[in-house]
Design a protein that fits this description.
The protein has 343 residues and is of the alpha/beta class. It is 34% helix and 15% strand. The strands form three sheets. It has an eight-stranded parallel sheet. The structure holds (4S)-2,6-dioxohexahydropyrimidine-4-carboxylic acid and zinc ion. Pathway: Pyrimidine metabolism; UMP biosynthesis via de novo pathway; (S)-dihydroorotate from bicarbonate: step 3/3.
Length: 343
């Protein structure tokens, strides 16, 4: 039985760090295991301009614990007013690594997102020209579409038309939750990839709803039926370079989760690597963990993999079940099984 596994240090290609007190509370948990992370721009107000991204990056750097080795890779929040020149400038300066598309109203703080996709065509053209990837929150928002179908419908109604209109645009379908999304990624040879979260490899919709409602498992896109979870496991553990880790670790206080209209998000930063090691081991794919968490992401983003390494050991980890913040406790994602890998 493998007792330890040394891999290049992983990166998190989709992370919510928030701001202020919450940023200070959650950042050390990502910086411990991850060398870099793509930082989501859905603050209130959102990170829309290069100047706002630079200021947010400075706040993240200032919140890092002493001696931490962590690089935030900034993104801009795409709006119908986004200026292609500002995007190109921020990219040329090496400040931003992607632009994030939220369909308006799709999820937490997405009110300034896009309703009319034609309006963002000039920005997407410029991004295609300069090789700056688009990260997508892949769910339609139409109230008549069932929430469990929103990702599959997004592919047909929004994503595929965007990719046809901008064939050289590089796109990352973020936090995919369906076999439809995994198949769509596989059906394209280049320029398209997907991130997969830790929690979507572990839970299906029964975990959220059967035998009682479990708000800490509620996230967006919502977890789907078991066949989809298994399709995600197969994609993540396959070694296919088009699939890589984006935790979507999204902290909300218990007060914000446990109320009549609770927030979407699972906080997985502290225990992701322990959970992933177990998931990959269960699927007989420990040798593919490095590709998923440390190699495929940088390759797609055109960055070198990390030179430093981490060693995972077969040892019961001591993760907190919840962390304290000045705004209240934030519950750490519970995978529902005992963990036996320590990072
Ligand atoms: O579960 C989620 N939480 N999904 C998102 O898309 C946003 C995120 C958040 O910001 O809380
Ligand atoms: Zn997210």
């Amino acid at each position: 039985m493998t007792q330890s596994l040394t891999i290049r240090r992983p990166d998190d290609w989709h992370l919510h760090l928030r701001d202020g007190d919450m940023l200070r509370a959650v950042l050390p948990h990502s910086a411990r295991d991850f060398a870099r992370a793509i930082i989501m721009p859905n603050l209130v107000p959102p990170v829309v301009t290069g100047a706002q991204a630079a200021a947010y990056r400075d706040r993240i750097m200032a919140a890092l614990p002493e001696g931490a080795d962590f690089t935030p890779l900034m993104t801009l929040y795409l709006t119908e007013d986004t200026d292609p020149n500002d995007v190109a400038r921020a990219h040329a300066e090496g400040l931003i690594h992607a632009v994030k598309l939220y369909p308006a109203g799709a999820t937490t703080n997405s009110a300034s997102g896009v309703s009319n996709f034609d309006k963002v065509a000039p920005v997407l053209d410029r991004m295609a020209e300069i090789g700056l990837p688009l990260c997508t929150h892949g769910e339609v928002t139409d109230s008549e579409i069932d929430i469990f179908d929103r990702e599959a419908v997004f592919i047909d109604r929004v994503l595929d038309p965007i990719r046809r209109a901008h064939p050289s645009l590089r796109v990352i379908m973020e936090h995919i939750t369906t076999s439809d999304a995994a198949d769509y990624v596989r059906s394209n040879d280049s320029g398209l990839a997907a991130t997969i979260t830790t929690h979507h490899l572990v839970i299906n919709r029964n975990h959220i709803l059967a035998g009682g409602i479990r708000p800490h498992y509620y996230c967006l896109p919502v977890a789907k039926r078991e066949t989809h979870r298994l399709a995600l496991r197969a994609a993540a553990t396959s070694g296919d370079t088009r699939f890589f880790l984006g935790t979507d670790s999204a902290p909300h206080t218990d007060g914000a989760k446990l109320r009549p209209c609770g927030c979407a998000g699972c906080f997985t930063a502290p225990n992701t690597m322990s959970i992933l090691a177990q998931v990959f081991e269960e699927d007989g794919a420990l040798d593919k963990l490095e590709a998923f968490s440390s190699l495929n992401g940088p390759a797609f983003y055109g960055l070198p993999p990390n030179e430093t390494q981490i060693t995972l050991r077969r040892e019961t980890p001591a993760h907190p079940t919840s962390i304290d913040t000045p705004d209240g406790p934030v519950t750490v994602f519970d995978p529902g099984f005992d963990l036996h890998w320590t990072s």
